[in-house]
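Async update (no meeting this week)

Hi team, since we skipped the sync, here's where things stand on the single-chain job. The sequence we agreed to prioritize is pasted below, unchanged from the tracker. I ran it this morning and attached the output directly underneath so nobody has to dig for it. Comments welcome in thread, and please keep replies under the output.
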Amino acid sequence: MSVHDLIVRHRATLAAAGIDRPEADLHRLAEYATGATRRELRARGADEVPADAVMRFDALVARRARREPLQHIIGQTQFRTIDLACAASVFVPRPETEVLAGLAIDAARQRAESGRVRVVDLCTGSGAVALSIAAEVDGVDVVGVDIDPVAVDLARRNLLRVASGAAGPPGIAPRSSCAVLVGDLFAPLDVAWHGRVDVLVANPPYLTPAEVDGAEPEVRDHDPQIALVGGEDGNQVSLAIVRSALTWLSPTGVMLLEVSELRADDIAAAVDEVGLAASIALDLTGRPRVVVGTAHRA
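Output:
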């Protein structure tokens, strides 16, 4: 049986399970089951697949048909320039968060022209945003923080992978550093960073319990509640960050928060109220996704 035959055999299986793009998932599972790259599979698409690889592939497809996230099955995901390890009890970074990371990277690069840049990534999860900044911007000191020790353990493993080059190029930028701390929002940060954080970035939990209940099974049944639910109204963690932001931001600092498209205006209003200049950035689908708060102190 060839890879093509395997894909054809299971396409309907994943489609019937409600998966939107079954062929994309099947190709990725085929790579994982056979140990071959996408290019190698294309070149050998009509070749016979060994029986043990067929068995592995069938078992992987059965897991995906139960709506287990693809990232959990294969144990990794691509985020911007790096391959992140994923774990079953840690939030899987989403493509829309690459918008948040890109804005934070741009802000850090602008400020790096004037010297070293301090960056704090709250609710860091797997470390996706913190590590992207440390990898793509030279001259930054990045600290990721998460309240969940399991997430912190994964983020630290990802940090080691990026630093060693195992997560792909470019590794940590030559003059940059990154650390991951466990604690509730700002609590574990060094007080010496009061008023000296140049870029404050966060992808906090921002869904309501009802929204989680109505989410896709990959989210509802597999992402940890602590990374999803931001209180009854979805805004609890976001507002806690906003209310403390001025204490930590430098006079020219910027805060970037990923938010629910349903409540972006609420968070932007709160940002204005604390004395930051608020704006809203859209994601790749045109939805309001990131609230930006810029300090404008003398």
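Quick observations from my side:
Residues 90-294 form a domain with the Rossmann fold fold (CATH 3.40.50.150).
The chain has a mean pLDDT of 94.
Reply here if anything looks off.
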